[in-house]
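The material for today's practical consists of a large collection of protein records. There is nothing in a record beyond a sequence line and a structure line. As an example, a complete record with its sequence and its structure tokens follows:
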Amino acid sequence: MTAEPEKFQEKATRGVHILTGDPKKAIVELAWPMIIAMVLLSFYQIVDAAWVAGLGPDALAAVGFAGPVFMVLVGMGIGVGAGVTSAVARRIGAGDRAGADNVALHAVLLAVLISAVLTAPLVAFAEPLFLALGAGEVAGLAADYGKIVFGGAVFVIFSNIAYAILRGEGDTRRTMYAMALSSVLNMILDPLLIYQAGLGVAGAALATVISIAAVSALLLYWFFIRRDTYVTLSPANFAYDTGTVADILTVGFPASLEFFMMASVTIILNVILVGVGGTDAVAVYTTGWRVVMFAIIPIIGLGTSVVSVTGAAFGARRFERMELIHGYATKLGVGIGNTTSAITWLLAPCIAVLFTYSPESAPLAVPLVAFLRTMCFFYPFVPPGAISSSLFQGVGKGFTSLFLNVLRSFIFIAVFAYLLAHVMGFGVEGVWWGIVIGDIAGGLAAFGWAKLYLSRLLAVRGNGPAPA
């Protein structure tokens, strides 16, 4: 073997060594590249919102109405990707490299099929869809944005599937490079297409699609031309297996439904907000929620690493590691959440300026600060739920994760938001506090469920099949 292939082999297996090594080190090593990548991704989303804010509150509201539908599209890729990460990591943990390769090939096939099914109807019925969602006078603007991002479905779904394959083999650094490229390219294109090209909200959408398409090309190069990843995508190795598809979708389908559910909850909250505060309240919520998603990135990064590390531990039947992974990641996440709360409370007025600098959006400044400070009570309770859901995804129990998120979002968040806003008469602020109270209840319930599952798993400790 030549020196060059040896170097490639060492690079390709580094992630696997981390994945199957010390769990605490693995969580940190796999999480930090994802955190950096998602910081850049969310930063571009904030920058995107800041550029759109210059077009006025109607443009912000239009993108806000398009956001939940686009979230469904992204969620299909990320959701199926969660199933891919789990399946790949479990096979690597069990020492089945050929099985990991076959999982990846099935995942690419699923990406193509999902894109083919979703793209045409979303593009064709964009405006009627937004009218049905209550967009009203901004439905046309929302459709201008939506048709373009929906048209790029194949790039959105494929890139998320490819990221999932890399995470499954412990290669989060390469994922970081690709996501960073997408974010930086999008930030460069936004002002050029929105203002200099005069495309408005359509320019923001086009910038998103171009940046994701460019990254998809890079991912294809890594897998099919450079071919230095641990998991390979050689068509010669493909052997269709219904069981492999089922294994991916056992986690991927419910994980995708989680994003659909999140989008549905956003739609429900938008309807509640329109009823108590008009479209300006929607603009505040959708803009402020971008900041919230940015703030919880470290927790999401921890969650992605927990899926991979838990999957490898479960595949190797190292059940005692799973309890360590869950406890360590949750404590780390709560510490991060407390720090985030303190920083957000202090910087809320400065953050609000980014989105209210134009005369048209200036009236949103005060309610936006109020929203951001209310969410400071939200952050510390995100980790128990998020880490617990990731643990269940890692072991292949996607429907358990889905149930816990349904409990949090529909049973707790949506109900509390409605009760506080309408029944108790707190209006817009009632929606904010409904989100906080619902998240606290849902997070604690998920954490308790995970602890119960781990105690049952440790009771068998390799003497039989894992409990259902």
Remarks:
- Residues 22-460 form one domain.
- The chain has 16 helices and no strands.
- The first helix runs from residue 3 to 19.
